[in-house]
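Same chain as my last thread, 231 residues:
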Amino acid sequence: MKILIIEDEYNLADAIASMLKSKKYSVEIKTDGLTGLNEALTDIYDLIILDVMLPHKNGFEILKELKEENIKSKILMLTAKNTIDDKMIGFNSGADDYLTKPFHMEELIARVNVQLRKNKNISNDIMELGDITLNIKSMELSNKNENHKVKIIGKEFHLLELLMNNANQIMEKEQLFIKIWGYDSECDINTLEAYISFIRKKLKLVKSNIKLKAIRNMGYILEVEDEKTKE
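reply #2:
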């Protein structure tokens, strides 16, 4: 999953990024309001850690514009201010959570995890979809109905996680590529297609009935059979 940090204290942003990367998150840092807003508007991030006091454009202004543009990223706001007024402004503007400085890094990580797992099909580090489960800790894909299990790591893991979180929805090729490899990757779209093939093979290995289909000129869809349609 991809996280954007918009924080003008670079040492703090770098410390947060290092901790998040150790938890297998993909992280980008922007240190001013304008570049942070422009990056956030790409809508490729699952969560944005947003400071309130920023040069050029403050966090509340950024939050307002993101909501007006219907950006779906979760928003965790950071500020040195600890007044109820600031918190209410943030929540009323659409922030998902609020953390005041100074804070313990462990609390930040816990809040990040809560936001990224909220409304997702994740319980106790296990993602479930159709007849498969994906173990977040051991990075193993298995079939709930069969005794089949396979290791799935790195970009392959993150791509399957993203597809599972957007099951039965068409995901554009470019959107998938940017979310997993980023803008600055030296790879090209052929890399995505190769990893799609890898995931299909893993689904076959665990004998899943879930299909990863290509939609011509659009992208891919992880299609889950509706139990009600089975005979």
